[in-house]
């Protein structure tokens, strides 16, 4: 009886321990995540005080995160109303970006890879984008061509927007960022 | 003492002949205790596993790019090139060059020339974590320069410094012997690629002394 109990304790401990560790670092960990509107960021992933979960996640793949003084990466997989981004819908990205030396906005799959679309554009940089009279941003993301700054989407399925701010003073206090200073992702309609 | 006497039945009979109610209660108690012990053990296993992953991982960037830039110049990462592990979460609008370092041979001097495109240099320690990051805005007369060293090498250098004289080099302490120096250049337009590649591969990383 004692042997069975011991075996049960060890099996439960090892199984639950390994499974929970594997689950915790299979994707980007929830610990250390900052949510700013529709955007999520892990500002401490590029600093010395990185948490053990993020560290474990990063070393399980070939990752070179942006350093805290180098820039900040923001990921959105939902629109402003909280609905998951879908290639069958059209989106309008409007608003402003924080002060940066340069930024890029790109469309990727859920693993961070660019889609292989017929048109070779997976993103915009701040130099490429055409702005309106007020200097505001207006990017139309859709699978079919749109007027203005058109960002092609895959014709279906989930995707992410990735906004990378290079050399930005906000990366050190990303936790205090307000949603208004980041571009807003609005869904226009869906097929 | 009669066997049929109900008053002392529980005390004299062996455990396996206890009334089924108390046997079940003992079993449940034992199971609950064992489950609790299992959960505590799981917590320990979880924490130890998370802390051990960086020490044993063979798939991290530092291992993947270990042979890069050992000749004293940063080497370009080409997405999709054969025999080269793909960098995950990389921005397609940046050009990345890396330089692997091993401080066992002495401190490393990193020198980068700046251009018109935004350049960032970061120091990634082996086992995850960015030790240091700097951008070309900190450049002095078009040059970014710093020396990477371990804590012990830093102490040596401090001891060698002349008293009262200010040192001109920027010293960065790495808490691991090995790691990567990553140069990232942002291409503002696709036509900037050749300039960006020249900037990124122009980063020198040789022994400091």
Strand order of the largest sheet of chain A: 1-2-3-9-5-6
Low-confidence blocks of residues of chain A:
none
Mean pLDDT across all amino acids of chain B: 86
Could you say how many structural domains of chain B there are in total?
Answer: 2
Radius of gyration of chain A: 20 Å
Helix % of chain A is: 10-25%
Highest CATH level, the class of the largest domain in chain B: Mainly Beta
The fold-level CATH name of the largest domain in chain B is Immunoglobulin-like
In short:
The complex is a heterodimer of chains A (about 190) and B (about 210). Helices cover about 15% and strands about 30% of the residues of chain A. Chain A is of the alpha+beta class and about 190 residues long.
Describe the structure.
The complex is a heterodimer of chains A (191) and B (209). The longest helix of chain A is centred in the first third of the chain and has 25 residues, at 2-26. The mean pLDDT of chain A is 89. Helices cover 17% and strands 28% of the residues of chain A. In chain A, the strands form two sheets. In chain A, strands 1-2-3-9-5-6 form a six-stranded antiparallel sheet, with no helix packed on it. In chain A, strands 8-7-4-10 form a four-stranded mixed sheet, with no helix packed on it. Chain A folds into two domains: 1-30; 31-190, Domain of unknown function DUF1214, C-terminal domain (Jelly Rolls, Sandwich), CATH 2.60.120. Chain A is built from two helices and ten strands. Chain B has 209 residues and is an alpha+beta fold. Chain B has helices at 9-12, 20-56, 61-64, 151-160, 193-201; strands spanning 75-76, 94-102, 108-113, 119-125, 130-135, 143-149, 171-173, 178-186, 204-207. In chain B, a hairpin with a 4-residue loop joins β4 (119-125) and β5. The longest helix of chain B is centred in the first third of the chain and has 37 residues, at 20-56. Residues 1-10 of chain B have low confidence and may be disordered. Chains A and B meet through α1, α2, β5 and β9 of A and α2, β2, β4, β5 and β8 of B.
């Amino acid at each position: 009886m004692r042997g069975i109990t011991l075996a049960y304790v060890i099996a439960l401990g090892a199984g639950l321990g390994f499974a929970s560790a594997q689950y915790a670092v299979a994707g980007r960990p929830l610990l250390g995540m900052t949510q700013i509107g529709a955007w999520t960021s892990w500002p401490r992933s590029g600093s010395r005080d990185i948490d053990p979960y993020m560290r474990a996640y990063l070393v399980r793949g070939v990752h070179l995160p942006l350093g805290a003084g180098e820039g900040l990466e923001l990921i959105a997989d939902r629109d402003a109303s909280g609905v998951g981004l879908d290639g069958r819908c059209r989106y309008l990205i409007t608003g402003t970006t924080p002060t940066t030396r340069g930024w890029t906005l790109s469309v990727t799959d859920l693993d961070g890879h660019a889609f292989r679309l017929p048109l070779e554009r997976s993103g915009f940089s701040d130099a490429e984008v055409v702005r309106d009279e007020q200097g505001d941003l207006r990017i139309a993301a859709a699978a079919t061509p749109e007027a203005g700054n058109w960002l092609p989407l895959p014709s279906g399925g989930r995707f992410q927007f990735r906004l990378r701010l290079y050399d930005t003073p906000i990366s050190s206090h990303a936790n205090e960022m307000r949603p208004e200073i980041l571009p807003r992702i609005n869904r226009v309609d869906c097929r | 003492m009669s066997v049929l006497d109900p008053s002392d039945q529980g005390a004299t009979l062996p455990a396996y002949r206890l009334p089924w109610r108390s046997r079940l209660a003992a079993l449940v108690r034992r199971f609950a205790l064992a489950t609790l012990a299992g959960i505590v053990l799981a917590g320990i296993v979880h924490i130890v596993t998370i802390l051990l992953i960086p020490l044993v991982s063979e798939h991290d960037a530092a291992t993947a790019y270990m042979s890069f830039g050992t000749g004293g110049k940063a080497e370009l990462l080409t997405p999709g090139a054969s025999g080269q592990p793909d960098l995950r979460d990389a921005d397609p609008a940046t050009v990345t060059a890396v330089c692997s370092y091993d401080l066992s041979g002495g401190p490393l001097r990193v020198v980068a020339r700046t251009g018109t495109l935004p350049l960032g240099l970061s120091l990634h320690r082996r086992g995850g974590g960015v030790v240091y990051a700097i951008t070309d805005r900190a450049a002095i007369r078009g040059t970014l320069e710093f020396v990477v060293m371990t804590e012990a090498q830093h102490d040596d250098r401090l001891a060698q410094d002349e008293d009262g004289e200010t040192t001109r080099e920027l010293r960065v302490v790495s808490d691991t012997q090995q790691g990567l120096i990553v140069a990232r250049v942002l291409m503002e337009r696709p036509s900037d690629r050749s300039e960006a590649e020249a900037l990124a591969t122009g980063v020198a990383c040789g022994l400091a002394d």
